[in-house]
Amino acid sequence: RDFNERCAQCSEVNWGVTDGGRFYCRSCHNVIERTREVVNSDFLTNSRVQTISKGSRKQEKKDGGCEWYVCEGFQLVLKKQAEALEALGVCPQMKDEILCKFWRHYLQKSKQAYCNRSDGETVKALSVCDSSTDVDSEAERPSLLHSSLSESEGDLQTDCSFASSASRASENTSMFSGSVDGSSYLMKNHKEKLRMTMPMTLSFCYMALLWLREPMTLSDLLRYVVEGHIPYLNVFQHFPEKMRLCGLDVKIFCVESWPVYEEVHTKMLELAAFLDLPRFPDITDSCFLHPDMLCMKYLMEANLPDELHNWTCRVVKKICIGDVDFLTLVPGNKSTRKVKYDVLAVAVIVVVLKLLFLLDDHYEWSLSDFAEERNKNNKEGGPYFEFKKWYTVIKCSLDMEQKKLDEGRAKYLWRCDKPVFYSAGKKSKVLKRRQMVVNLQNQFGKLSGSLRPAEKPNPSSFQFSWSEENTDGSCFHGHSLKGVLQEKRGLLTAKNPDYWLCTLKLCNEQLCGHLAHYRELDFPQSYHFVLRLFSFLLRIQPSYIHDEVCVIEQKLFHKKLHNKPKHNTHIRK
Amino acid sequence: SSSEHKLSFQKSKEVCLSYIQDAMLQKQWKRAAEFLTFYIESLEKDFSTKYVGPSEMIWRIGTEILCHHSHSSMKEFNSFIEQMKAFGVRRYLKICLEHAFHLLCNGLIDEAYQNLSLAESWRYGEQTAIQDKEMKLIQAYRGLLDYYSWSKQKNILLEHGQDGFEDLSVEQEMHSCFRKAAVNLKEIIKIPGVWDLFVKCYVDLLEFYGDHNEARQVLNEYAYNSKFPANPNAHVYLYQFLKRHGESKKSLISVLKILHDIVPSHELMIDFNNMLQKSKKRKKRRLGLEVIFAVLDYAGWKENVKAWKCLARQLKQIVSSEKHLDWIKQEWNSRKDWWPAFHFSRYLAKQNWQENESLSYEKALVAGILLGKDCKYFRYVSRQGCKAPGKRFRLLKKFINKHKSVYQGIS
């Protein structure tokens, strides 16, 4: 697949490997001299061990399509995603070496390729028969999957007669797909084998990024996906013409929702364990993903004073979350809690803000008044940081961006021009509908005054940027924390003597799914605001950050919590 | 839980819809159109289980926007509706009907007629049976438009007739319109419902062609068939018809009696009271009193001179004859607690006197009888009235003085 030369005959870049190990162009079947041995390290899924045996692979079906397997589809998706990441600045090693190795390893482990099919399945899927019933009766579609999944494997026979008789017998079961194994893909119980899904492609990407310690967090990655810089939605547009996507393939490759951080992260961990990967490369304090680095980034983005960085480093050091052993991923090790670097970093910042400003809806404002007074009377030595001012500036920008985001979500277009049909029979209906949709969009688009939907934002790892050159004083990076600090025995400590814990005791994650329970009403507004800011930046729910904050607090105040009995959550530091 | 916040196709379309609705409520048509543009692709995934699916949503929202948006034209509207028709088989006839209404509202009567005719000839398997109600409505409205044509032809003929012209073709057309209209109108009014306009037109046709029996039967059905919802207009139409045809007072009264039961404040109650007062039967006169008192219970009649005149005349007549004072007592019993404040306050006395002398005259007469000569209303008005030129207030005063003990008997 990495052979990117254009075919001499048809100028397509769409290579496969013949049984004889030679390269051929899949669009026009032009065989070239280049052979497999020369390009050992390339992606070669077509040459699955079991299909090298004779005759099993037809090049062309009658409608001009070709046979393709689901994992080939995913491979194509991963390739596209890797290319996009490369365009965003990720090192090319990721695509050529890491991701491809992971993928191949996965295929081997899940016995989809690069191995002998010895596990007793003679699945030659049921696609090639034309099914008489269509999959797209709308209300029945959810139940369709149920009925197919509930069929036991014993019933799965491999010849076409079963498929057609089954479809005649019950209107609901229709097991066909453009891919060879689409239907069986969905039906088999893949729990042990970790069936590939679209969200999992992102898990693969993230895993590769993590292995290479690239400066891209998972929240960044997912944000790029949503912003359209990384193919995910409607990625099947990039499939070559011959790879016909229909029927159950749609369930596999068409996404109806955005990937969720938690889901992608969990799957990544499962994947790493499944592949028996060794300990990942160390995350040291010079890595982007190290809390000290990430805290700096988020502090800048949140327009907070640089001086806070000292404090975040202190907290990180105190609770040992900067240790290389804590941060580095060791797959399969169930005892250690897995680190979400971005969430961890912002949680540290939140804790530091609580340490210095208390954030109980009173103290921070009085500190701010004090700083305001000082700033008015004393112009030298640079301004003291005023919480109130910061709050005003940030709230304004945050509300604006949030509004844009919300409207953007409402205006999201999910469909693309390449239509997707469940069956050839419905093709004309689908096309007609698409035509009507386009017509209507044009008609009302003219009335709305705007021509085209907003352009994709340029990819940027910073969503807010604040410049010290702004003369309106809206950048707080250089502001001093002197207003909230005091000297005690030669050390700078916080003026604030108190601290309130988010929770006295963490919940059992296994039992109730969360470490803590966040409800906006239960906590101070300032705390909620800070959570809101970071949850916007990371595009995750505030409760995730809150959970992480709870964990950090438990570690930080461990001694105080366990040595003295506590009646309330207030602590003297 | 995370799944609730997951942004899915469905959720994002729901959110989009709420933006559209907000914009429409604030009459921001451009913004509504903008968001509608993004909502439209839900047609490609029309399997919501909600009561109103995307395609109906888009039809209704799109219609609203196109109606109100400054840049939209009739042509655009029509093309939009045609697309909606092509897409929504299950509500095809409904769309046709509403399209016709829209055309009518914009004065495009011929287009509306064409649309309705086209819709009438639509057949689509079992959908035709399912959408039977809409079909009947379409036929009925087409019948109505036929009536409208007929009416135009008729007027032309009458004009020409005056000028001495004969116009066979117009006449023929007129008759053919009549036939088409009659068939459809007759059909729709068979179905229980409120069909005021259709009934009126149909009766008009029948009367013109002299089929009074059929007309009477239709009106009777419409008014008295219990399957039809209670409809005061039905009785009004029947009454008007009977009056036109010189029916007996007895039948007129029986029709109006029902109207009185349904709508005691109806404007025809004045005519009703007049008829009843003149009746020789005691029961009828008693009813008349009941009717006129009931009318004045309603705020809308407070300043109606005619109504007060009727009441005043009848009360005067009873008092003068000194018979049936108990009638007054009966009627006054339930009103004595609130009518004084409602009709006869000092404030009203002043206001009535300033605005309408006749009104205050009639009311003063009633007040004098019911509340006695010392009541606020009567005292004020009669004092003012006696200062004014003319004799009637002085005569009034005399009358009330003569019968001043009446009110004691009735209170």
How would you sum up this structure in a few lines?
Chain A: One of its GO terms (cellular component) is RNA polymerase I core factor complex. The complex is a heterodimer of chains A (573) and B (411). Chain A is mainly alpha-helical.
Pick out its properties.
A: mainly alpha; two-stranded antiparallel sheet; 5% strand; B: 411 residues; mainly alpha; SL1/TIF-IB_Component (chain B); TAF1A (chain B); TAF1A polymerase (chain B); TATA box-binding protein-associated factor RNA polymerase I subunit B (chain A); transcription (chain A)
Detailed description of the structure:
The complex is a heterodimer of chains A (573) and B (411). Chain A has 573 residues and is mainly alpha-helical. Chain A has helices at 70-87, 93-109, 141-150, 160-169, 182-187, 198-211, 218-227, 249-253, 261-274, 291-301, 308-318, 324-327, 341-357, 363-377, 387-410, 427-448, 509-512, 525-538, 542-556, 558-563; strands at residues 15-17, 22-25, 31-35, 485-488, 491-494, 498-500, 570-572. Among the domains of chain A are: 1-34, no CATH class; 291-382 and 484-562, no CATH class. In chain A, 43% of the residues lie in helices and 5% in strands. In chain A, α1 runs antiparallel to α2 and α13 (341-357) packs across α19 (542-556). In chain A, 36% of the residues are buried. Mean pLDDT of chain A is 75; it is low at 36-60 and 116-174. Chain B is mainly α and 411 residues long. Helix content of chain B is 74%, strand content 0%. Chain B starts with a helix and ends with a helix. Chain A binds chain B through residues 138-139, 141, 256-258, 260, 262-263, 406-407, 409-415, 430, 433-434, 436-437, 439-441, 443-450, 453, 513, 541, and chain B through 1-3, 5-12, 15-16, 18-19, 29-31, 33-38, 40-41, 43-47, 49, 58, 62, 65-66, 69, 71-72, 76, 79-80, 83, 86-87.
